Amino acid sequence: MQLKLYDHRFFVQLLLLCWLTGCIDKIPLDTEGMVDLLVIEGSINNQPGPYTITIKRSGDFSEDQLAIPDPVTGAQVRIVASTGESSAMSEIDPGIYQTDDLNFRGEIGKSYHMEATLADGKTYRSLAEELLPVPPIEQVNFGTIKQEVLGDNNVISEEDFIRFSVDTRIPDDGKRHYLKWNFTGEYVFSEIGDPSVPLKPVRRCYVPDNIDLNKIVIFSGGDGARKELTKELLVKDLDNKFLITYCFHLFQQSLTPGAYAFWEKVEALVNRSGSLFEVPPGRIDGNIINPDEPDEEVLGYFYATAVDDVRFFVQRRDIEDVVIFNNCNNADPELLALCLNCLLVTNSTLEKPPYWED
Amino acid sequence: MVIFTFGKRLFLILCLLKAVAVVAQEGSVKIITKSYQDKQIADILEELENYFDLQIYYLPADSTIIKGDWQFEGNTLEEVLSRLLDRTGLGYMAYRNYAIVIAEKRLLQQRYSSDFYQLLEQRQSITAQSIYGGVREITVGDVKQMNDENTVRIAGKIRDSETRKPIVGATLFFSDLGRGVSTDINGYYAVNLDVGRYDLTINYVGYDELLARLTVFSNDQLDLEMEKEAITLEEVVVESRAPDQNVNAVLMGVEELSAKSIKGLPTFLGEADVIKSLLFLPGVSTVGEGASGFNVRGGSVGENLILQDEAFIFNPSHALGFFSTFNPDLIKGVTLFKGTMPAQFGGRLSSVLDVGIRDGSYQKFKIKGGLGVVSSRISLEAPIKKEKTSFILGGRITYSDWLLNLINVPDVQNSEVSFYDLNARISHNFSDKAKLTISGYTSRDELTFADEFGYDYQTDGVQINVRNVLNPRLISSFSAVYSQYQSALIDPESSESFRLDNGISYYKFKEQFRYAMSEHLNLDFGGTFIKYELDPGKITPVGNASLTAEKELPTTFAREFVAFANGEWDLSAKIAISAGLRFTRFENVGPGVVNRYVNNSRPEETTLTGTENIGDGEVIEGYERLEPRVSAKLMLNTQTSLKLGYSRTAQFLHQISNSDATTPIDIWQFSNNFIAPQKADNFSVGLFRNFKNNQWETSVELYYRETDRLVEYRDFSDLLANDLLETELLTGIGKAYGAELSIRKRRGVVNGWLAYTYARTKRRVNGELPEFTISNGNWYRSNFDKPHDLTLVTNFEINKRHKIAVNFNYNTGRPTTAPIGKFGVGNVQNIPIYSERNALRIPDYHRLDIAYTLSPGFRKDRKWKSSWTLSVYNLLGRRNAFAVFYTQPGLGNLVANRLSVLGSAFPAITYNFELR
């Protein structure tokens, strides 16, 4: 396990004083006085549906992070456009609702809101969100960089990382353009020859890489003037996922000022470092309300967005000056099993995606 | 009349002619029931002292070690003494209402020749000096000259021992009488005393306290010389004060620290530090170790007026707050007004920290300095023209990078912390009556953290002070100051690398007169004019590739006109009053650009209608405030006083901060058309009592403060270079209240203090809409609300060479806003739901420090003096939390982290030297 030191604010204290002993340690979480609030979140965009809305209860922060705590089932949910059309939603998994009407598609210039009636009869709705146009992605860039990392045994070493960024052109229309980027990855995982089965062919699997979990990359809209924007998206260690081909799939999304403000606050809370000089945290107001009980605190946001997306491939030859170790060459038994049968890797497939470039 | 002293106690007077045969406690007569077996008379006398709360003076002699059995049943002190002393040849008599003198009966009944008294005097002197080195024994007049009236007039002159110049304003204090006199413009004093023995303390700023034991027989002239303070670097004493100041001063909540006292406290890395020393005083706290600034009685950091002579110091911190910017070698003294501040001070709500810089030596060349773990300092001083003109130059510089290199973290090793400060001062005496000083000051800090970010901040100032004694009753002080504070936050490497600058500068002119209307009434009055210039923010991209756009907020201007008058009036021996009035007109003036919003609506980005250009000198908004200040002292007896205080304070310049600790780039903002001046009403009451000849001081002070128009920030507000700053701010009210209990021992081998403070500070922001409200409009705790605070400061002065200081501090953990749940949206899981503002607390804090100082002794004629101080800060290595924060490592669960800024014991060694 290696710790990458990139959060400067985190180390402002180290800088001066934590020079004899470590100065940050974990203490037990105080779980008294936890709140239990309704959370509704989802979005609509200008790409083909279906669209998803999730309804759940807020969790105790000692719970497992990826589990959706307490899904709220049996709700009647729909998305409504400002022009009147709407689509009802069905519960495909506990607490997860999906639009039924595949012809129902977000359109730039229209506004949308969601409505939900829970099993207990309480109704909730979001404020209307306008689906704003998004400027196109001009170009995805990448480069390799070296960073110093601190290993388990306190040894500092220099390692290679890859950095992705995006170029986009903010239109000169006098309006602010608030943007958000999401991205996913996909890579080729190649088996190694099995000495016990000499003639078995070595296969390649295509494996999704969940790289934007908890990453929030947003742009504050600028000042309404034309601007060539380059935004750093991700710095990722160069591991064996880059041994053959890596596909970086980028989604550039438009946001309303309200949605931007929401994500900005989420970012502020998720990326907290505990620095002396950090802005103290606060509560995040979403755009979901209970019209009958305006004082009820409901969390979450329903937003509308236009999306432009691009797939970008990093081939091994593009980064041939970087040494990448193949973990399969020196694998422990657990990893070795995967190296001999790539279908054991989570969500992997042997089928090459139609968009794939070698 | 017979006057003599016995060995066991400090002093005594026997006025045989007026001997009182009966000891009566005030009120009812106290009795004792107790039996003693095989016990020495001396031991029983000691018990009686405690039981009857009085002092018994006697000469240890054979008869007092006589052992015996005694049985007392409901006996008065008189009866007990008679029986104890029966057959010993000893008698007793009362002295005033708190002492008993035991002596041979023949002494109590007879007159003796002057030879006898002389012999007696010699015996006493030897005894006294062997116990209390440094106290002068002085006989005034001649026994043969004693008159029947019993009243003696002593007059004389107090002079500087080196220059033989008169010292103007030195105080001579007779602790037995609870009163004193000051020297006049020629250094003369005169005082009427009864025949007897007195402890005399003479004080003047910059001089060693002169302690003398006077035996007064008849009219005489008594000239005394005081020696310049030989500042050794480790002593801890509160100085330049009358011995009974605790009880007798009119103002309460005034703390004075000398350079000596500051230098002796065990400090972090052995660096003597003004502000860290203040934190040991009741009512003064900080949000955490290494945080910048200090909080006084529930006020924020920005509510303290910090003065170096007449210049405002906007940021008194080096290295973000681990050290303060005042050079301890150049300090004359430090005064902190926690409660009612006199009318000559103003412009901040909660306190005044007045740091005085001293003149260079008028006699000889001196070098002083210190070598510490992270910084060193040196100062030079010398006469330019002997006894007329002098200079002093002092500087400090840090070399802490080697420390950073010890940290096995690459980014830390690539970081840099550097700071320096430099003071220079030339003083010229035109005559005994007129003096000019010109002082300059600069302080600079540069911090870079790897390639990630940096701070760069600087204070520069120059001031001219002219002091003129217009006539013996009227003294004028004129000062002119120019100073500026500039700070920058630098992001050197990222794709949006930038440098953000802001700053404030001002010209200040002040004229203050002190008029001694009578012996009982002193008046301070005058006026101040200040012109401010404030650069609220300028962003410049760093490097060619930066995506940051250049942005500069327009400079803003303001003017401040102040008139003030404050009188100190001794109405009677028991009642004294200090009362004053301060009037301020504050103007936010053009040129400038003012944002305009939809009429009557709260400033919001959405209600902005445009901007308006304001012409040069045009008043954008003006405010007038009248601030009454009044304090009163009522002496309940010579040892006890009750004090009351009320003051109104107004603040026109606001430090806007939205972080737990203030930062170098926290902006200052004028009161303008959006931000009205803050206002506070401060009430305080205190009971003060000294014991044992002012050796022990105790006090209880209660205070209550109500603040209006407090400036608060909205959740998630972005204050940096924000041209719509007013949209991020909210207005609220505040209250702070507390009790400060303090017991202090001033002198002796073991001295120091124990202070307990209970203090609360709360705020309330209740806007029209939820987004303009904090914590649903309820009262919430300030960042620095720490109810319980206990401080123990102990000095063991084993002798002049060896000293040990031990400090202990405990306080309640400060409030924090903490997660009380989580939720997820889209690809982001585990978004914490935070509590209402400051609803929870971090763990409590406590710390033990120790310091040992080895000095060269105290021979004044030594040319080279040096001392070593070894200290351990946080001896127990307690991991006190500065903050508790929450992180999500990788994709794991939320984790509570405790940040302990100084989480281990920090030893340090400092070498101090002086060449004179």
Structural class per helix/strand content of chain A? Answer: mainly beta
| Proportion in helices of chain A | under 10%
- Profile the largest sheet of chain A: 11 strands, mixed
CATH superfamily of the largest domain in chain B: TonB-dependent receptor, beta-barrel domain
Biggest beta sheet attributes of chain B:
22 strands, antiparallel, barrel
CATH class of the largest domain in chain B: Mainly Beta
Based on the structure given, which CATH architecture of the largest domain in chain B is correct?
Answer: Beta Barrel
Unreliable parts of chain A? 1-22
In whole angstroms, how far apart are the ends of chain A? 32 Å
Q: Supply the number of helical segments of chain A.
A: 3
Based on CA atoms alone, the radius of gyration of chain A comes out at 23 Å
The oligomeric state of the chains shown is heterodimer
Overall helicity of chain B = under 10%
User: Radius of gyration of chain B over alpha carbons?
Assistant: 31 Å
What is the average per-residue confidence, as pLDDT of chain B, rounded to a whole number? 82
> How big a fraction of the residues of chain B is strand?
over 45%
